[in-house]
Design brief:
- Keywords: Membrane, Transmembrane, Transmembrane helix.
- The chain has 155 residues and is mainly α.
- The chain has one domain.
């Protein structure tokens, strides 16, 4: 007889959550910015590493952008999935926690990663864009992580 431990299946749950979050986030960027070609969105992401050269690059820069996008999504998913039991004990409400996780990712990306850890040229933030991006991260990361981690951890 096999005894299930809390760590059994965590890799599977985390990887599936990562793929879902990364894909939802990429799709939201494409859908919420219909005036911007999808290739340009991923070149923008690649410019975080390659600088302005990424914007004039070809398919290679689009692929780098996709890889970087999913790599960043993996980092957030792994950390937040593992922190879920701690965080749900603090906030005690899954809906509230989903909002907090999405907002946390927004603030980390826009006030730490982009300005200090990337070569992306920052543009002024506009309220409509900020609210759109926050909402996208809440839906793409907050809710999937909270509800899938809740299923895994059995709260």
């Amino acid at each position: 007889m096999t005894v299930k431990t809390k760590n059994q299946g965590i890799v599977k749950y985390t990887l599936l959550t990562w793929l879902l979050c990364g894909t939802l986030d990429a799709l939201s960027a494409i859908v919420l910015n219909p005036q911007v070609p999808a290739a340009a969105i991923f070149k923008y992401i690649a410019s975080g590493f390659f600088g302005k050269a990424a914007t004039t690059g070809g398919v290679d820069m689009v692929l780098y952008g996709v890889l970087f996008h999913y790599f960043i999504a993996l980092i957030f998913t792994v950390i937040l999935f593992r922190l879920y039991p701690f965080l749900i004990n603090i906030f005690r409400n899954k809906i509230l926690l989903a909002f907090i996780l999405g907002l946390l990712i927004f603030f980390i990306m826009n006030f730490l990663v982009v300005p200090y850890l990337s070569h992306i040229v920052q543009r002024p933030m506009k309220l409509a864009g900020v609210l759109k991006n926050m909402s996208a991260l809440i839906v793409a990361f907050g809710f999937p992580i909270v509800f899938i981690a809740n299923k895994y951890y059995g709260d």
